[in-house]
Amino acid sequence: GLDNGQLHRVFFSPGIFMAPLKTPTLPPATTTNTLIIGTNKLYIIDPATPDISEQQRLFDEMDSLLEAGKHFEAILLTHHHIDHVGAVNAVSQRYKIPVRAHEECYERIEAGYIKGEALKDGDRINLGTAPDGSEDWHLTVVHTPGHAVDHLCYLESRYHAAIVGDMLSTISTILIDPPEGHMQTYLDNLEKLLGFPMKTLYPAHGPANRDGHSLIRHFLKHRQKREHAIIDALSNDEQTIDELLPKIYDDVPETVYPIASRSLLAGLIKLEEDNVSTQISGGWKLA
Q1: What are the E-state strand segments in 206-249?
Q2: HSE toward the beta carbon, residue 102, CA cutoff 13 A
Q3: Cis bond leading into 179, ω under 30°?
Q4: Tell me, what DSSP letter sits at residue 254?
Q5: 255: which DSSP letter?
Q6: What pLDDT, on the 0 to 100 scale, is given for residue 2?
Q7: pLDDT of residue 74
Q8: Greatest Cα-to-Cα distance within the chain, rounded to the nearest angstrom
Q9: Is 67 helix (H, G, I), strand (E, B) or coil?
């Protein structure tokens, strides 16, 4: 039972099971959510943990679903980052199921999995019959680069659940790390997600959130506030990122500065593209 490490069967949306499992991720997160979606035809999204004992908890859950007569169709990935793919090869080989992801993802993850058909924006994944018996239950694939070039979200058709990977976290802001991370692309794709019907949002890190759209708007507002802080801190004199950090990130402990400096760089690059800031040798100033 649960005393032996069995995963808690908690559902925020019908037909979607979420298991937070330990991964080597960025603080404050310590886990990445693996999701199992479906009633009879099941898909596993982001089997992420490299930890052997955590993988065993996942296998036990999958085995019990197979014993109940259910069938795993494929592994779906949101993107290639290490804290999302730790159990991909183990799950693919143990259950003989293919990995489906953005074309760019395959080139970035460790070999040893069964390769499935690549996914692209607008693809539809058939889930069969929904928990309430309605037909044409499916996932829509949405390509959302910005955090990672191969990032995909999966939007569920019946209950409007959104599996958003690292587009949002419910415990912190998402790191946009140049050159792969690109702030304007990321913001554009958050806006793109607002165009889809959405109720419960499932991030890769942190608990599910009941109102996906309001969470997206909250983070868009937060990024805008941070951008204004960068503009306020810039002057006609050149300043390094280390000089700018304490002015802009006065709300975070210094231990977070190495991560914050990457986000700050992404923000400065965006402002440079907007002709607001300019980079000179080792520093930044107003354009």
Answers
A1: none
A2: 21
A3: yes
A4: G
A5: G
A6: 59
A7: 98
A8: 67
A9: helix
CA 166 to chain centre: 2
Report the distance separating Cα 227 and Cα 220, nearest Å: 11
Tell me what pLDDT residue 281 has: 86
d(CA 184, CA 224): 11
DSSP structure class, residue 7:
P
Q: Which residues of the chain fall short of a pLDDT of 70? A: 1-4, 10-11
Q: Report the phi/psi class of residue 94: left, alpha or beta, with left for phi > 0 and alpha for psi in -120 to 50.
A: alpha
H/E element, 75:
strand 71-76
pLDDT at 282: 82
Classified as helix, coil or strand, 154 is strand
Buried b (16+ CB within 10 A) or exposed e, 97-123: bebbbbebbbebbeeebeebeebeeeb
- Mention every residue, 6+ apart, whose C-beta is less than 8 A from residue 213: 194, 198
Contacts of 157 (CB under 8 A, 6+ apart): 127, 136, 137, 138, 139, 140
Q: What are the structure tokens assigned to 203, written together? A: 């991030």
19-46 in b/e form (b: 16+ CB < 10 A) is bbbbbebbeebebbbbbbbbbebbbbbb
For residue 121, the Cα-to-chain-centroid distance in whole angstroms is: 16
Q: Which tokens is 209 given?
A: 């959130």
